[in-house]
Amino acid sequence: MLATITSPSEFIEKFNRKYELVHKAYEDNFWATKMNLQGNSISELSRTKGELDEFLGDAKLLEKVQEFLKQDLSPKERRSLKTFERVFKCYIIQDPKAVEMKKQIDKMEAELEHARNNLKLGYTYKGEFHLASSVLLRTVMSTSDEEEERKAAYAGMRSIGPFVVEKFCEIIKLRNRFAKSCGYECFYDMKVLNAEGFNKKALFKILDDLELKSRPILEKARNLLAERKGKQALEPYNMNYSMAGDITKQLDPYFPFENAVDAWARSFAALGITYANATMNLDLCDRQGKYSNGFCHWPQPAWQSPEGWVPSQTNFTSLATPSAVGSGYTALVTLMHEGGHAAHFANVVQDSPLYSQERAPTSVAYAENQSMFLDSLVGDAAWMARYAYSRDGKVIPWELIEKKKRDQNEYEVFQLRSMLAVPFFERKLYELPEDQVTPENVMRIADEVEMQIQGGLSPRPLLSVPHILSDESSAYYHGYVLAEMSVHQTREHFLKTYGEIVDNPKVGKDLTEYYWKSGNSENFLDLVQGLTKKPLSGDAWIQVLQEDVEGHIKLEKIEYEKAIKAGPKFKAGETVDLKMRVRLVHGDLVISDSATDPKGLSGACSVYKNWVAQLK
Ligand SMILES: [Zn+2]
């Protein structure tokens, strides 16, 4: 029993073990139920979830930690106990009045979520109502050749706002009251401070600068789109359609689904990335009964225990349909992304499992920085020339890369401004005086922010962004913006220092040393500055957006030719050692396993290839 232990060092050790135990029990059940494995049990899932929540929410344990902190401690013990306190404070509210308020907020959020899930979303076209999820509505908006249909789909997206706004207003007010009672300026301020370790003011100093510097680029891109496709292309229901091309289809032959695992493994190995003896389960394909969202979780967080190194265990799933056009490209980007998260968490070397788990106090910005940096490589000519090969062994032609860049580069700023609109909107909401938090005002502000930040109404109306509604994901969208800023700053740093990123083992070494080893024990901004020797800013991102297309294409062509000459460091099918056991699974079926295959990972990949081939 932790509560009765009197020695701090014994407490620390048992605490770490207990956390590891409840964390793993829950995550193992999470995987079993979501993958619908034999013998999985919903009641075990909720029992173990309850145990994890109870542990993280144990106010008595927090008090005990705080008691220990008043004693004489070794620096190592103090550090551990401070971390426990920090973790607990992400989950425990000590003031009884605040506890009551939080209960009320949870209840209202659950009601809103329930209502939103049951909303009959869709669009009316040619007198007929079509049920459609928000994902489908957006697909219609970017693919339908009929403007009237796109317009109707957009109206469907706009119908979410009026539906959620009334309850959302009540939630905003309560969240603010709650944050103020805990001593914060507003709810947004509280969330930023808890997640990132710096306040709202510091955050918006960075975001305002990015907004200011990217504004002229936005204007230029909007003018360009209007010039090329006509002024009506700027309407929210026409924008995505007018930019969409057939590039996905043309790229498809060079990204065969069954080769994605091998390409990811070889390119990570060439970057010098290893996984410190971790194990990874990969369940990539869709099937009946499988959970309908992809995810990557870590049942076993890596840590340095008193008995020695404990490697991480990763479960990773996606919903690929190998025969669908574009599935190979998506699978590859997902592998680079989630494989990046996994590399990060596998290489956290600290004396507690709390530093290497994905929940708070690990921030979104810190976590996404790793995965977004690694998936960004797929867009580089230097990467595609080495790894984008068709089934019959032909490398992606330069002309296709050039077309992709010409189609997309000049409009990239739209994505930045669309991301930026969310934190600007949320800041305004939580800064409104309580008596002004009304449905009319909130809907008006949503439109105003879209006009100001995106230059016109957005194809994705702000009130349709699901993140702003639920507690966990509200007031954290800025994390993605910060991560993308850091991705560009990190890329700039490596390119300046080493000249190249793809297939450069120094990159993996630096990521491990500067970004991964510390886990969440260090502040994200400090980590970025530690590697790049500069405070985090949007300058590197702005520079990429400002780059002239012709100049960029010229440079990329040189990179393409260089990469063709050099070839990938590890050839297709060659054995690489990621210091990881990779199990390729499909529900209960283990398709291949690098630990038992005589040819290791490359053997496991070729068995998987054959398995995919027989699916068709
Ligand atoms: Zn991610």
The rounded distance between the terminal residues' Cα atoms is: 55 Å
Q: Which strand order do you get reading across the main beta sheet?
A: 4-7-3-8-9
**Percentage of β-strand residues:** 5-15%
Low-confidence stretches: none
Radius of gyration: 25 Å
The helix fraction, in percent, is 55-70%
Number of strands: 9
Shape: globular
- Work out the helix count: 25
Mean pLDDT over the full residue set: 94
Structural class, from helix and strand content? alpha/beta
Largest sheet: 5 strands, mixed
The oligomeric state is single chain
Give the cofactors and ligands: zinc ion
Please characterize this protein's 3D structure.
The chain has 616 residues and is of the alpha/beta class. It has a domain at 2-92. It has helices spanning 8-34, 42-56, 59-69, 75-91, 96-117, 134-143, 147-158, 160-181, 187-196, 200-229, 239-243, 247-251, 260-270, 327-346, 364-376, 381-387, 398-408, 412-431, 439-454, 478-498, 505-516, 524-532, 539-546, 549-566, 600-613, and strands at 122-125, 128-131, 278-285, 295-300, 303-305, 308-310, 313-320, 580-586, 589-593. The strands form three sheets. The chain has a five-stranded mixed β-sheet. It has a two-stranded antiparallel sheet with strand order 1-2. Strand 8 and strand 9 form a beta hairpin. The model has no long low-confidence stretch (mean pLDDT 94). Bound molecules: zinc ion.
What is the topological layout?
Blueprint: H1 8-34, H2 42-56, H3 59-69, H4 75-91, H5 96-117, E1 122-125, E2 128-131, H6 134-143, H7 147-158, H8 160-181, H9 187-196, H10 200-229, H11 239-243, H12 247-251, H13 260-270, E3 278-285, E4 295-300, E5 303-305, E6 308-310, E7 313-320, H14 327-346, H15 364-376, H16 381-387, H17 398-408, H18 412-431, H19 439-454, H20 478-498, H21 505-516, H22 524-532, H23 539-546, H24 549-566, E8 580-586, E9 589-593, H25 600-613
Parallel strand pairs: 3-7, 3-8
Antiparallel strand pairs: 1-2, 4-7, 5-6, 8-9
The structure holds zinc ion.
